[in-house]
Amino acid sequence: MGVELALKPYRRRFAQPLQTAHGPWMWREGLLIRLEDSLGRVGYGEVAPIPWFGSESVAEALAFCQAQGSEWRSHPVPAELPATQFGLESAMAELAAENFDIWQEPSSTAICGLLPAGERALAIAPQRFAQGHRTLKWKIGVHPITDEIHWLNQLVQALPLDARLRLDANGGLSSAQAKQWLVACDRVNTNPQLATIEYLEQPLPPDQLTEMTALGNGYQTAIALDESVATVAQLENCWDQGWRGVFVVKPAIAGSPQELEAFCQKNLPRLVFSSAFETVIGRRAALAIAARCSPAPAPALGFGTQGWFADNWDTLTPAELWERL
Ligand SMILES: O=C(O)CCC(=O)C1=CC=C[C@@H](O)[C@@H]1C(=O)O
Ligand SMILES: [Mg+2]
């Protein structure tokens, strides 16, 4: 059965640059995939790489897909192209599914609201709460640590008691700064009058797993790995090295969805699913994986990424988005 593959690269601009310890992110580049079989069934997929997390670039994904031509199904996607593995496998899964369009976007209470880095988080947090989010995520390691810890203390004073806060350092802290942050987090988490800090995400670079394990054992506040576990291979490696803290998983850059689901079902890890700032096409596939891998009660989904771009693509269906490009 012939399956035709069509590709559409895209670029979309953040309304405001996303500030993280990796630096400002202004443009999200990606690649949409459309498959159609001889029966007229269609499947969409998305390649949404994050090269600074270790994935391939859009150019590498495009070169691979174009080089395959009509033979694209006869060659396995190399492990070095995890975002391409996700995109192609998701598109094939949708093509084979009876009807992918029974789609239900999760409610805001099930989604973690994303706050801008810096002091602006103080003004945006109430808006996220008003939108229904009860878990919020704040990027740290962007401004001087004394300023950020000062803003943290203001933020938790302003949040309702049932709020949960995730702090994401994107591997940008030194060991001393990570300890400074964990002291500040434990001070909040031992005060029953304040909101809870759910975890400190990727405090150190991925090559410092031993230090992060020690931090996890030395403080009350949990540590989550993100950049350390970007692919299924890295998930398995950290698991095999004994990591039992939180695993933040971005399905769009993790590689094969089937392999990811197998890892989840085999090990039942403490998982938080996270967006790669993909479009509706990648989002639906990633959230479908999260739904299959997250036993209730699941932690809030790290998919508060809609509305961060300067376009209206988040309001479109996959077919409408494909036609728009
Ligand atoms: O995880 C979330 O809640 C939202 C997604 C998110 O924070 C990220 C997506 C992609 C790259 C990073 O800037 C960032 C992260 O590090 O988790
Ligand atoms: Mg992160």
From TrEMBL:
Active site, UniProt feature = K139, K250
| Pathway(s) | Cofactor biosynthesis; phylloquinone biosynthesis; Quinol/quinone metabolism; 1,4-dihydroxy-2-naphthoate biosynthesis; 1,4-dihydroxy-2-naphthoate from chorismate: step 4/7
EC class of the enzyme, as a word: lyase
Task: List residues of the Mandelate racemase/muconate lactonizing enzyme C-terminal domain.
Answer: 118-222
- Keywords for the protein's UniProt record, in alphabetical order: Lyase, Magnesium, Metal-binding
Supply the EC number(s).
4.2.1.113
Keyword Metal-binding assigned: yes
The catalytic activity, as recorded, is: (1R,6R)-6-hydroxy-2-succinyl-cyclohexa-2,4-diene-1-carboxylate = 2-succinylbenzoate + H2O
Q: Could you say which residues bind Mg(2+) here?
A: D168, E201, D226
Q: Does the keyword Metal-binding apply?
A: yes
* Cofactor list: a divalent metal cation
For this protein, the record's NCBIfam families field holds: menC_gam_Gplu (TIGR01927), PRK02714.1 (NF002739)
In terms of PANTHER family, this protein maps to: O-SUCCINYLBENZOATE SYNTHASE (PTHR48073:SF2), O-SUCCINYLBENZOATE SYNTHASE-RELATED (PTHR48073)
Describe its function. Answer: Converts 2-succinyl-6-hydroxy-2,4-cyclohexadiene-1-carboxylate (SHCHC) to 2-succinylbenzoate (OSB).
Q: What protein name does the entry list? A: o-succinylbenzoate synthase
**To which species is this protein native?**
Leptolyngbya subtilissima DQ-A4
